[in-house]
Design brief:
- There is one protein chain.
- This protein has six helices and twelve strands.
- The protein is α+β, with helices and mostly antiparallel strands.
- The protein has a single domain (12-240), classed as Nucleoside Triphosphate Pyrophosphohydrolase (Alpha-Beta Complex).
- Strands 2, 3, 4, 5, 6, 7, 8 and 9 form an eight-stranded mixed beta sheet that branches.
- A hairpin with a 4-residue loop joins strand 7 and strand 8.
- The protein starts with 11 loop residues before the first strand and ends with a helix.
């Protein structure tokens, strides 16, 4: 998502998006997630191709021609195995970047010609951005492709990550590395719908987007946009398979 023309934290709160299914804690541990991604929709490759558009997103699904024109990218949805439960590895981008400045993101980026697969892209980018060694990562699945308004088609790669004492953020791109409990992000009571309105050439425009604000140690992390959309995609998949 490009640098927004609005402050997302001050966008109108439509409603807390709390009508969803509560996912039992037992479905949010490492063994349960391994099982889920192994069997869901026929396995990793099938689930990555599944059509699962966010109902909040009013844009039509891209055509095959439009998809071919998008720049491939991948992100690592890293689930860190902490004693208190899984956490999601996230970064705050530095303020001077042209794209995603100051925003909350997964480690990731555009695919390089030498990358053999989206998994290779996600692992390489995570190593470059936060110092995460590929040997500490166990890939368990992928989420549906996510197309951004800036011309990227993103593969979210879901992985279990061994506990790391300290990450090593790349200072040019990453201002901060932090972790948010998976249980918090998968709880629909912590999901918001927000709306921004503007005038474009005399035409009234509106856009709705998801947000998952999280507070920790006095810091406020406003998770929104593509990152929140991909987290909500994970939530919808897990909720659809709830026993």
């Amino acid at each position: 998502m490009a640098r927004p023309r609005f402050d997302p934290e001050h966008a109108r709160l439509v409603e807390p998006d709390a009508a969803g299914v509560l996912i039992p804690d037992a479905r949010l541990d490492a063994p349960a997630l391994r099982r889920f991604f192994t069997r869901a929709a026929g396995g990793i490759d099938s689930i990555a191709r599944a059509a699962s558009p966010d109902p909040v997103d009013s844009r039509p699904l891209p055509t095959a021609t439009e998809l071919a024109a998008l720049t491939p990218a991948a992100v690592l949805v890293g689930l860190v195995q902490r004693p208190a439960g899984l956490t999601v590895l996230l970064t705050r981008r530095t303020a001077h970047l042209n794209d995603h400045a100051g925003q909350i993101s997964f480690p990731g980026g555009r695919t390089d010609p030498d990358d053999a697969s989206p998994v290779a892209t996600a692992l390489r980018e995570a190593h470059e951005e936060v110092g995460l060694a590929p040997s500490a990562v166990e890939v368990i699945g992928r989420l549906p492709l996510h197309d951004t308004s800036t011309g990227f088609i993103v593969t979210p790669v879901v992985a279990l990550v061994e506990p790391v004492e300290a990450f090593a953020p790349e200072p040019f791109e990453v201002a901060e590395v932090f972790e948010t409990p998976l249980a918090f992000l998968m709880d629909p009571r912590n999901h918001e719908l927000r709306e921004v309105a503007w005038n474009e050439g005399g035409v009234a425009m509106t856009r709705r987007f998801r947000a998952m604000p999280w507070h920790s140690d006095g810091e406020r992390y406003f998770i929104w946009g593509a990152t929140a959309a991909m987290l909500h995609s994970l939530y919808r998949l897990l909720a659809s398979g709830a026993d």
